[in-house]
Amino acid sequence: MANEFGFDTTPAVEAPLALHAAALETTLGGPPFDSLMEEALPDISDGAPTAPQPVVIEGEPRFVIPSLEDFPSAEGRQNLEGALKVIMSDTGAGRAELHVEGPKGSERVEVGPEDAILRELVELARRSGTPQVVASVSGPPESIAWGAWPFRTAQHRGVLAAAGITPATGWSRWQEMVEEVRSTWDSQDRAKAGPAFPMVPTPRTGLLELDDFAARLTLAVERNRRDGLGFALHRLEFPVSAAALDLLGQRLPSHLRDTDSICRAGLDRMLLLTATPRDRFPYVRGRIQAQWQEAWLEAGHERPIPGVGEERVEMIRPEDAESFLAQAQEWMEEE
């Protein structure tokens, strides 16, 4: 290819790819080769940067929060709202909701107009504890998704939800993000709660769910590893009476200390985690027995009142942690 002076302007084989691109652009009717050369060649004037400039890759937009480790904490409402807007822009969502419950109360962050489908999915995800995702596959609007993903950490539980995700396949990005944020918040929770456990500032609202109880077990292991504080897990077995055990479940947590964690692990069993030394546990057991006797009689049963069975596993040293958690898992999975 020759220019107006008759000189060949075809780039040599070893020339940068940018020069070849400029030549092709001119051949196809684009701007003059000289002007394209000015754009393609590096700036060699005095004061020009010498380090290579980063290449900007165009294409599908990506989540631009610098790192999910920088995702706002559960207590930062304003920052959470900003983070949601970033994710919505990244996935085409028209509305996002974040519902969080934790030691300091509940928080709800909403961005975008109300959406009736999303409202129902959030409630369903909250009740079932499982992700809920639906997509439009026919009729207007096509290829749009709604999703609600529940999550739990050592001290928080919540639901992250989005509506109008476009295209619908973008819902998987939200699912991945939920798990990464859950992991980040869980690490933050453990860093705060682990050193002080079991003095964890959480509101007592009754029996813990199994997932929450399992999180307490993990915190107990971390505390024991840190400074050697001992813990005991008690498997409490009651005579079969659904009515009596329901009454006991409603009342017993308020008669235990804030440092005790208790959950129901079956029709006739409860699990109790304490940092109480063995020689002090009879006082705790006495309160349990007293509440059980009242529940048994109020449920309409007669005397004599059957007793409460108990098994116990202890974690005194860090090397006890593996067997301690294994026994806890077995008791939580019993039929």
Would you summarize the structure shown here?
This protein has nine helices and nine strands. The protein has 335 residues and is an alpha+beta fold.
Q: State the total count of DSSP E strands.
A: 9
Order of helices and strands: HHHEEHEEEHHEHEEHEH
What is the makeup of the main sheet? Answer: 5 strands, antiparallel
Task: Please indicate the count of domains.
Answer: 3
Helix-strand makeup class: alpha+beta
The level 1 CATH classification of the largest domain is Alpha Beta
Strand order of the largest sheet: 2-1-5-4-3
CATH architect. name of the largest domain: 2-Layer Sandwich
- The outline comes out as elongated
Mean pLDDT score, rounded? 78
Uncertain parts: 2-30, 39-44, 50-70
Q: What is the CATH homologous superfamily assignment of the largest domain?
A: Reverse transcriptase/Diguanylate cyclase domain
CATH topology of the largest domain: Alpha-Beta Plaits
Could you tell me the radius of gyration in angstroms? Answer: 31 Å
Task: Please count the helical segments.
Answer: 9
Share of helix among residues?
A: 25-40%
